[in-house]
Amino acid sequence: MGKIEWAMWANEQALASGFILLTGGIVGVAGQFRGWQFAAYAVAAGVFVCLLEYPRSKRSKGTSMARPGQYCFTVCVKAFGPLTRNYYVRAFLHAAVCVPGGFMLATVLGCVCLGIASLIYLGAAIHGEQWVPILPHKEVRKPMESMKNPPQNPPPRPPLEMRRKRVDDLEGAAYDNPIPVADE
Amino acid sequence: MANKIINNGLSAFILVIWMGINIFLFVWFYLFYDLGDQFFYTRHLLGSALAWARAPAAVLNFNCMLVLLPVCRNLLSLIRGSFMCCGRTIRKQLDKNLSFHKLVAYMIALMTAVHVIAHLLNVEWYNNSRLGVYDKLSTALSDLEDTENTTYLNPIRKTDIDPQQIPTYLVFTTIAGLTGVIITLALILIITSSMEVIRRSYFEVFWYTHHLFIIFFAGLVFHGAGRIVRSQQTTDPPHNFTFCKDRTDDWGRIPECPIPQFAGGFPQTWMWVIAPMVLYLCERLLRFIRYMQTVTYRKIVMRPSKVLELQLVKSGFKMEVGQYVFLNCPAISQLEWHPFTMTSAPEEDFLSVHIRSAGDWTDKLIDIMQKLPEGAQGPKMGVDGPFGTASEDVFDYEVSMLVGAGIGVTPFASILKSIWYKFKDSNPKLRTRKIYFYWLCRETHAFEWFADLLQVLEKEMEERGMDHFLTYKLYLTGWDQSTANHVKVWVDDDTDVVTGLKQKTHYGRPIWDKEFEQVRKENPTSVVGTFLCGPQVLGKVLEKKCAKYSDVDPRKTKFYFNKENF
């Protein structure tokens, strides 16, 4: 656990809102409700929000949990650069997208949910968060097991257990001589 | 297979019963609204959407009643205590409380969706009838008004606004509509903030948002008060709809067809949820009382790698191995309770927890403790518990194989200590003669305190000449060439380079075939209990090995697999 990343919750909320908007829209269109044009809009808006929100952002710390099969969505969303990266843009986009949903009952719930998501995104943006794509990290090539490689850690090298105790200060640990050296 | 039935049979049985009740309620209420004569006219306006709205409502009542029960942890402890006589399998069910809570919550979410969609249709159909879009009967029924000798059927009374906005107006001006919207929103927020990723990583968000349940239940109790679903009342003379439905013009004029009277159903939801709400209130009161009880610090120790050990004393506190407590530190947060597995043994006169720096709350706690002057009492600490079923099975086997993976090693601290105390005192309840302990770990840094504990045990056993009692093997699964080289250099050393223990750390995963073979060879006639606290994948492997290495001959070695859910 670490610092709260509001965008993670905003993302869940927005994705759920997308589904609710979509469902409301489908009910409205299928039932041919009064003003079903708004429902048709809600279907489109719901799909759009779902597609935009499906790829989860990378967490600033700790393991990122990608949604199943989000890779190709990530690539698409990443292509828009700062537009999708900046959470202020998302907050205002969702706020704008949700407005027409308020004109008929079937989409009101989705509209309010998306509005809430927009507010959480605004909070995330104020906290300085931004969307970072989760991309499969490139294989870090380990040096081959051979004697040709030069030493990675310059001497003097203390025994490993002395280094291990000072994980918080790696720099200092590497150069710390545990045995007091006295000039005789 | 038999093992599986013993382990999972009861949960499956409970699930089948729960699902059965859900299905029964759904079907019963569906048929009640779909076939009932008193709803003939209502159905004429709404079609099957009426039944589709009411059947989920009944299931919702039932599940909203259940959803609070599994989170009353003190209540569960009480039940667990009174089931002492019964088998462990029954008590074990109570440890699956949160899975059940989630399952019930999923059902609530599903039924809410159906209920909301059906009501969206209902409102639209009502609106259409009111505006005279459908046949003559629908219009006539909708035109009925609340006067001295008529009662309305169609709740839409206001028609002089934009027809498209009438449904929205209705929803936001009636008790049922408004509470419905509010509690659905509360439910959605609760659900989105309890997704795995939020719950595990940002517990505070999850924890605070979950308290919207107060709004949810308050709204739920009043949701039915609007009595918006209306049924036909028996009148004198009776209004026979089969005869009268095509004679709307004659309603009130001929004696066979008086004007039909309608009334809303009696609200039922509060009857379902009031008892759990009271129970939950008691639970919160009890938690408050527990919080007020004084807890004194016996010792505060900072272990390596930012692990804090707290030894607390609370009068009247009794624990068993493998149980956990909830801690609340008002200096950090008045409201948050965090669970910790106890690492002390029941034989000790205090309770101890090891708290690893893992988030805001733990970081702040460690910070406060570090700033304390030597020997001072820490900040006020509330202790609620203990909870969870004790893992006493370990003491029932002659030979125990304990397998802990990563953080799963925590409960074994308590178990190992307790076994050691019992062994020292020659406690008759202890049948264990030998323990094999396997500890699989990606990196030992975070669990150095556990190595410390093992070291203490090791020393004590050596002093008493009983070092054969505990055999432990450490497996470091995350290692690289440099560690290996380092180990090669220090291989002749008396203690291990990583942990400082007598037993050498192994690198990579254990070869289970070899381990089981060895245990079998060393204990040719024993019953061996295998206990795992770790990931499921490992559980499957061990379960298979246990079956493979158990001998059919009853006199020879047998392995029993137990997966502990701590």
Automatic annotation (TrEMBL), chain A:
A single Gene Ontology MF term assigned here is: heme binding
Taxonomic classification, please? Eukaryota, Metazoa, Chordata, Craniata, Vertebrata
Name the record gives this protein:
Cytochrome b-245 light chain
Q: Where is this region: Disordered?
A: 142-184
Q: Which family does it belong to?
A: Belongs to the p22phox family.
Where composition is biased (Basic and acidic residues), the residues are 160-169
| Membrane-crossing residue ranges in chain numbering | 12-30, 36-54, 91-124
Q: Which Pfam families match?
A: Cytochrom_B558a
InterPro entries membership: Cyt_b558_asu
The answer to whether UniProt assigns keyword Oxidoreductase to this entry is: yes
- What's the subunit arrangement here? Component of the phagocyte NADPH oxidase core complex/cytochrome b558 complex, composed of CYBB (heavy chain (beta)) and CYBA (light chain (alpha)). Component of the phagocyte NADPH oxidase complex composed of an obligatory core heterodimer formed by the membrane proteins CYBA and CYBB and the cytosolic regulatory subunits NCF1/p47-phox, NCF2/p67-phox, NCF4/p40-phox and the small GTPase RAC1 or RAC2. Interacts with NCF1 (via SH3 domain). Interacts with SH3PXD2A. Interacts with DUOX1, DUOX2 and TPO. Interacts with NOX4; this interaction mediates superoxide generation.
Coiled coil start-end: none
From TrEMBL, chain B:
Q: What is this protein called?
A: NADPH oxidase 1
Q: Where are the transmembrane segments?
A: 12-31, 51-72, 103-121, 169-193, 205-225
Q: Which UniProt keywords apply?
A: Heme, Iron, Membrane, Metal-binding, Oxidoreductase, Transmembrane, Transmembrane helix
Describe its membrane topology: Multi-pass membrane protein
* Subcellular location(s) of the protein: Membrane
According to its UniProt entry, this protein's organism is: Solea senegalensis
Q: Which domain of life is it from?
A: Eukaryota
Q: Which GO terms describe its molecular function?
A: metal ion binding; superoxide-generating NAD(P)H oxidase activity
GO cellular component terms listed in the entry, alphabetical order: NADPH oxidase complex
Q: Which Pfam families match?
A: FAD_binding_8, Ferric_reduct, NAD_binding_6
Query: Which GO terms are recorded in the biological process aspect for this UniProt protein?
Result: defense response; superoxide anion generation
Give start and end of each FAD-binding FR-type domain.
287-393
Organism taxonomic ancestry:
Eukaryota, Metazoa, Chordata, Craniata, Vertebrata
